Amino acid sequence: MPEDGTAVPWELPGCVVSVSDPSEPDVEPSSCSGAILCRSPGLVLCPAAVLVPFLQPDVTAWPHGDALPPSALRPGLHISVLQAAPPPDAVQQHVACPLALLRCDAFARALPGTLSTAEESTEALPWFCWLRVPGLDTPGGTWTPWAPAATLRKGAALLACGTPFGALCPELFLNALSTGVLSNATGPQRALLLTDARCLPGTQGGPVLALAPTSSPPRLVAVVAATAGCQGGQGLGLALLCSLHALLQSARSVLPELSSLPPPLPLPEAHGSPTLRCAALVESGSSWGSGTLVAPRLLLTCRHVLQLGAPLRVTLRHSTTRDTILQARLVFATAETSPFDVAVLELQDSVPSFQPPDLATTFQPGIVASNARDNTAGTTYPHLNFCIPISLLRTPLARYRCSGNPAAFAPLNAASEGARAAWRLQQRPPSKL
User: Fold this and answer.
1) Closest listed residue to residue 245, CA positions, set 228, 227, 265, 260
2) d(Cα 238, Cα 229) in Å, to the nearest integer?
3) Which of 81, 240, 297, 353 is placed for a possible disulfide with 347 were both Cys, Cβ 3.0 to 4.6 Å?
4) What is the maximum alpha-carbon separation in the chain?
5) Taking the model in full, what pTM does it have?
6) CA angle (354 as vertex; 349, 357 as ends), nearest 5
7) Are 370 and 385 in contact (CB under 8 A)?
8) H helices within 150-254, ranges in order?
């Protein structure tokens, strides 16, 4: 059962793909998660990276083309698919045959050129392997219900289904679930998606589902492409997903097995969250961060986001395709000695049709100031954040909007020693955070 308690059937479209070479019995099999796309015929999709160790010596990984035939792999490989089964069996194993290794061009074009992840080579990321699994054939079997990721809005609920550590212990880890939201999407056909669902190593290739009303099954919208968990000692907390629609588009002209693919199912109507409409990108020189719009021309961000003397640019996204970019000026920034990492910006123009949010009068999280960082280990924890309560900022904001005098924010520089100690997590003995 996922973290939010959503009930799910045992027949999830997840599996494990394991690859070994019988001529090398002392070499550990390579494994990853996979997505069951169809049960008549039995089709499974997984990252092609699991097959890198088994390419023929004369095959360049990865070529500049868009496809590799099964002959690019060593002959005699043992490829198996493990799927969940009803008790008491728990796990069933099937033999699989590779149909093709295909490159998803839309996903490849969306990948940032400087992307680096802990687990994957960026060259292999856009490549996926299509497997034919006769053992999955079911009389009257159908395709897994799917929907194009382009119809998802930011903040849409997602359910990631993967098997951490691959074939290590499928009895325990098979089809582990994690809930999250669509954090962002980019590229042609919105082929590259970001989610905060926790995807551990080995879940690459696992299906990602968009939750639908309780009367209908969830829709398969993407597969996990990279777990992107850590970079330079800092936890990123986001996983890269590849849109299923983009994968199907890249394979239709190559695989006749896709001729029976049904049309996508609609997703429930979603309306943009008022919270998301307040969010903005703040750029200051080579520095950038997030901001929160609290009035048609007034935006809150953190002092450390800003570079001294650099021009300020604010970007707001009203839809999946339209951005508003405005210049801004600095109205106020807390002093370096203040525990409250706050800056107030005024936009050059009002944001059209903006509905200001209601600011809480009691303690509520306001703006995120920083992640928690372990200074001893040099590690950042993205799921543990420090927030400045909006109730602390409400009165200064109201006074500034009435007077236009930046001095309204001066009390933020006069925090008590108790507040300073709390923000430094000072204890006896001192915390290492």
Assistant:
1) 265
2) 7
3) 297
4) 80
5) 0.70
6) 120
7) yes
8) 170-173, 244-251
